[in-house]
Amino acid sequence: MLLLNCPCCGVDADETELAAGGEAHLKRETVGAEDEAFEAYLFMRDNPRGVHFERWRHAYGCGKWFLAARDTVTLEVFGTYPAQTKKPPKAIENALKKKRPDWKGWA
Amino acid sequence: MSDAISALSGAHATGYVTVTEAGLRGMITLRGDLGATKLKAAVKKLIGADVPLVRQNTVNADRGVAWMSPDELLLMVPHAEAESCVAALAKALTGTHHLVANVSDARAVFRVEGAAVREVLAKISPADLSPAGFAPGQVCRTRLAQVAGAFWLTDDETAEVVCFRSVAAYVFGLLEHSSRTGSEVEYS
Ligand SMILES: [Zn+2]
Fold first, then answer.
1. B113-124 pLDDT, tens per residue?
2. Which pTM value belongs to this model?
3. What is the distance between the alpha carbons of residues A69 and B125, in angstroms, rounded to a whole number?
4. Would you say domain B12-23+107-178 falls under CATH 3.30.1360.120?
5. A83 lies within 8 A of chain B by CB
């Protein structure tokens, strides 16, 4: 079972209270973008075994979106943070580097 | 105008707690900047209470206000006053970015009473219902089996459960089943 702390309302929300929103920190391509970049934005996603940054929505609770860093294999959660964030907060990045020395960085 | 009636006409079930449909309740959704001076003043005037803190619920006699999300409150007033309260709020908030809607007849309310009220709710919801995690004065928006719902404790043995009117019969069934005599878990 996956528990994510919703940064918008503070609840440790059960997986069944949440809606998954896929990979976080995607750069939106728009008018004038190269076809390849647009295709990548629309369809190409990372699918790593291990560290992953994801969008989640507290669908049955406060209704808000937030972001989470977790391990797709062990389900360890490294932290959650507001959706209005362009990259993972330093604290999460530092924790990740310590816990997963072979992690290649988020970008 | 036709008379308003509640979804299940006061349906009642007695198991190891009692479940009663609580009848009509005026409910108003108010969305906006919960820190805005105008909004705070309007809520105070209507309910007689401050805008609650995160996940808090204030009951003031036949009125109440519950924190639903960082930009949403649920205001409760007597059913007959809901329309005039909406008009008063809209007037008070003119010029401020907000949304106010009378949702009274889109909802159903149940009262669940008995010493095992926490257990009965815990069977149908993933929320933390331990006394340490949930106390009177707090509101919980969560999942009731397959549908969305919210509840709060008015005291240690009484909960009020709110859901959409369209699923009132389903939620009543859940509560009735969850509290059926013989199905006690006696978790403590
Ligand atoms: Zn939340």
1. 999 999 999 999
2. 0.93
3. 25
4. yes
5. no
